[in-house]
Amino acid sequence: MSVSEIDLGLPMEKQHEEEYDATKDLYLSFKVDEEEYAIGVIQVKELVPICAITVVPDTPDFLKGIVNLRGDIVPVINVRTRFRKEEIPYDENTCIIVIYHEDYIMGLIVDQVVGVYTIMPEDIAPPPHAKLSYSNMFVRNIGKANDGLKLLLDLDKLLTQ
How many domains is the chain built from? Predict the structure, then answer.
């Protein structure tokens, strides 16, 4: 599925979450390596194909740099690198998920966007207590969707720890 085929169901300009209760149970699913992760659609500003990234010196290896999105300078992190997975070349499926986090905008480079899923609160469970791998520390919950389980990310941990 290409980036342009994903319909987030959001208006062009983000407004207050309370005004968009219909999106509270929607999650954007994406792949990193063979695992499928998801974040709330309400946090997603847009999806953009991979583009030129300007490297910023002396930053963590997962912070790939900054991009210029229609005049906004947006820092981007490679989620694959953040999860300590082997880097691979970008391809036609690689894209940047531009998200809102607190008072700023950030880009997440992912291997592939899968789609948008409805996951109801009763279908969300906490992750197992066992820490199976480094990347599991970024999982807030597990969501049950039609076609399987989605690992729901904790963006605070992903972006700040």
Answer: 1
